[in-house]
């Protein structure tokens, strides 16, 4: 009999700055105890960056003011997808030293084992990032 996978954890949060902390806490609490020592800090940073970007750049209007998060284990990684109703495809930037923003995806790129941007089937964009379940080192 095949191993039955875990059901992904899913949240819908308002596109408001207070959701960043809520999302970070919810994701950390959903990680299995055995994974927390080596995943919690990096997953918290990924969550903060991706949710912040979704709120700033993807939430278009008040009536569409929700972002969605999905967390699931697969293929030796824990994956986080953060989705918003926006149509702008996030891209890696190279801000100059005087810029006060634009470094979020650079952080995601350095932390994640892999990440990508995908259009949603109906409307919107998802950024998906994965962290290895194996501790580094």
TrEMBL record:
<keyword id="KW-0067">ATP-binding</keyword>
<dbReference type="InterPro" id="IPR050267">
    <property type="entry name" value="Anti-sigma-factor_SerPK"/>
</dbReference>
<keyword id="KW-0723">Serine/threonine-protein kinase</keyword>
<keyword id="KW-0418">Kinase</keyword>
<dbReference type="Pfam" id="PF13581">
    <property type="entry name" value="HATPase_c_2"/>
</dbReference>
<keyword id="KW-0547">Nucleotide-binding</keyword>
<dbReference type="InterPro" id="IPR036890">
    <property type="entry name" value="HATPase_C_sf"/>
</dbReference>
<dbReference type="GO" id="GO:0005524">
    <property type="term" value="F:ATP binding"/>
</dbReference>
<feature type="domain" description="Histidine kinase/HSP90-like ATPase">
    <location>
        <begin position="13"/>
        <end position="127"/>
    </location>
</feature>
<keyword id="KW-0808">Transferase</keyword>
<dbReference type="InterPro" id="IPR003594">
    <property type="entry name" value="HATPase_dom"/>
</dbReference>
<protein>
    <submittedName>
        <fullName>ATP-binding protein</fullName>
    </submittedName>
</protein>
